[in-house]
Write a structure and sequence with these properties.
Layout (H helix, E strand, L loop, with lengths): L4 H13 L2 H7 L4 H12 L7 E4 L2 E4 L1 H27 L5 E8 L6 H11 L3 E8 L1 H9 L5 E4 L8 E16 L18 E4 L4 H12 L7 E4 L2 H9 L5 E4 L4 H5 L3 E3 L7 E10 L6 H21 L1 H4 L1
Parallel strand pairs: 3-4, 3-5, 7-8
Antiparallel strand pairs: 1-2, 5-11, 6-9, 6-10, 6-11
């Protein structure tokens, strides 16, 4: 047999996602290239690794055994690469970060230079909702999390990164007699994030505090979905300024000049106080402590002014 590590990686991914198309997307390869490697890999075995029933791909029992073995081999190869890098004096290992969806507009800038300088660091960044981020942190499934609301039930440490400003926004055609009069909002449809979202919680608190009646509302599960709905004129919403820079510049959205806004919180990099940080995690923490002010100045001047 003469199968390659590349073929093992491809088959392992196909077995994981049960789809050649999805595997090609996640491996950043073309579908024909993945199909060819799968065929070449299968040709080296007398027993079938998979079968197609209807239009679905199913991994056989033998295929599952090969997939599990492939995973172990790939993990060992990864370990060899890490050990080689360590002996060369390089930083090597995995860095796992969970962030709330709005933080995707900021976290890549805090990561960029660190990842470029440390090529043997493998990054996994899970972009999800607040509840899932906290659960990931609580279950020790990530090294760090980026949130704007500190979880009270967890004993954490943190580095304060930058402010998070929330504004009421509407599309470019939204008209009101006086943007500063809250009564105007009583007849406007509202677009909410899903339950558990820190942005939704801030919006609900604001509406209750100012006794604004909700005549009609829509609930969407991502910041991007809310933004597109507002641009389309389906309603107004409270949104973080950090996520609407381009839309403001292009005139697709407008910030409403309403009393007691913006609502301001802070983005934080947090980790469990009991967490035994790896060498990679310690290096990233040091990178943030030493460079956060420069990153904020260079990347977010428009946002912090």
């Amino acid at each position: 047999m003469s199968y390659t590590l590349h073929q093992l990686e491809i088959f392992r991914k196909i077995a994981e996602v049960k789809s050649v198309t999805k595997a090609s997307e996640q491996l950043f390869l073309t579908q024909p290239a993945v199909s060819i490697q799968l065929k070449n890999f299968q040709d080296q075995f007398k027993l079938p690794l998979f079968e197609i029933v209807g239009r679905k791909l199913y991994i056989t029992e033998f295929g599952e055994e090969i997939s599990n073995t492939a995973a172990k081999i790939l993990d060992e190869v990864e370990a060899i690469n890490y050990k080689s890098a360590l002996f060369e004096g390089k930083l090597a290992g995995k860095l796992k970060i969970a962030i709330v969806s709005t933080a995707k507009y900021a976290m890549p800038y805090f990561l960029s230079d660190f990842i470029k300088k440390n090529e043997m660091v493998d990054l996994t960044m899970d972009v999800t909702n607040k509840m899932s981020v906290i659960r990931s942190l609580e279950n020790n499934e990530c090294d760090f999390a980026m949130v704007s609301t500190i979880p009270k039930k967890l004993n954490i440490e943190r580095i304060e990164l930058m402010k998070n400003s929330l504004y009421f926004v509407a599309n470019k055609n939204y008209k009101t007699v006086d943007k500063s009069i809250l009564k105007e909002l009583n007849k406007t449809p509202f677009i909410f994030r899903e339950n558990g979202s820190a942005t939704r919680l801030a919006m609900e608190k604001y509406l209750i505090k100012h006794k604004i009646k909700i005549q009609k509302k829509m609930e969407l599960t991502s910041n991007e979905a809310v933004k597109q709905a507002v641009i389309a004129g389906l309603g107004i919403s409270i949104m973080p300024a950090i996520g609407i820079k381009n839309e403001l510049l292009k005139g697709e959205l407008q910030i409403l000049n309403i009393k007691d806004l913006p609502i301001e919180t802070n983005w934080n990099l947090i980790w469990l106080k009991s967490k035994n940080l790896s060498s990679v995690s310690k290096a990233f923490k040091k990178h943030i402590q030493e460079n956060k002010n420069t990153i904020i100045k260079n990347q977010f001047d428009w946002f912090t002014d």
